[in-house]
Amino acid sequence: MTRHPRRTLTRLLLAPALAAGAVLGLASAPAQAAVWSSCDQWGNTSLNGYTLYNNIWGSGAGSQCISADSGTKWSVRADHPNTGGIKSYPNSKKVIGKPVDSLSSLKSSYDVRVPSAGDYNSSYDIWDTDYDYEIMLWVNYHGNVGPLGTAQGSVSLGGHTWAVYKGSNGANEVFSFLRTSDSSAGTVDILPILKWIKNTKGWMGNETIGDVQFGYEISGSAGGLDFTTNSLTVSGG
User: Fold this and answer.
1) Rounded Cα gap, residues 127 and 91, in angstroms
2) Architecture of the domain defined by 36-236
3) Per-residue confidence band for 32, with pLDDT thresholds at 50, 70 and 90
4) Of 40, 87, 97, 222, most Cβ neighbours within 10 A?
5) Stretch (H or E) spanning 120
6) Which of 221, 228, 225, 223 minimizes the C-alpha distance to 119?
7) pTM, 2 dp
8) What is the DSSP letter of 168?
9) Across-strand partners of 166?
């Protein structure tokens, strides 16, 4: 095979330049921007049927920013001191607006990535429209956190086994269900839990369910920790 030195040299000279251009192109290509982000204490927005809240509400809080691709795919960077007490509850909310007895189905699926440090829980926070009753479902938790109230035993409902606590924060009744093992992804059938509270225990009446929220109740995340909701669905009602 006949070689062409000049052509070969040209290839050799062009190759590094093309490679450098490719590297520069990759380096300068901007990352896909989030649809919405906020570092404001009460920052919120509505996206595809869900409402997102940054929701830094506790005393002694540090900094926190929320960034969303959609109402069901979002992340939080939080840097709160490990001093005890809840600092924030960044969350995504779906409004239901039906009494328990009128619901034929109410389910939710979650897929999250949470840190191996810090004090927090990943939880659903479910409210009636009058905010008299709060039902919390902790799917995972870490560090120095715990529920309000007194232990009521354990129960298997909605596809999970929970340790149940009943208490009050002075403004409303709180029923907390703590999953007996941590989960980063799964589906919760919420309606049987609501009916168990109403019918089996008699702790509330035929309340109209307002908000189904899912998020991260953060007490401490010193140095900055990341919480990621890869996907979330709330369906039924």
Assistant:
1) 14
2) Sandwich (2.60)
3) low
4) 87
5) strand 119-128
6) 221
7) 0.86
8) E
9) 150, 175
What burial letters (b/e) apply to 130-162, b meaning 16+ CB within 10 Å?
Answer: eeebbbbbbbbbbeebebebeebeebebbebeb
Q: At which residue do the structure tokens 């979650």 appear?
A: 110
| pLDDT per position as a tens digit, 137-172 | 999 999 999 999 999 999 999 999 999 999 999 999
Cβ-Cβ contacts under 8 Å for 185 (sequence gap 6 or more): 109, 110, 111, 112, 230
Q: Which sequence spans correspond to the domains of the chain?
A: 36-236
Count CB neighbours of 198 within 10 A. Answer: 18
From residue 166, how far is each of 75, 121, 196, 217, 220 by CA, in Å? Answer: 30, 17, 13, 18, 24
Per the CB < 8 A criterion, the answer to whether 118 and 76 are in contact is no
Q: How far is CA 63 from the centre of its chain?
A: 17
DSSP 88: B
Q: How far apart are CA 12 and CA 8, in angstroms?
A: 6
**Edge to edge, what strands does the sheet with 185-189 contain?**
36-38, 63-70, 73-79, 225-236, 106-113, 185-189
Task: Report d(CA 234, CA 93) in Å as an integer.
Answer: 9
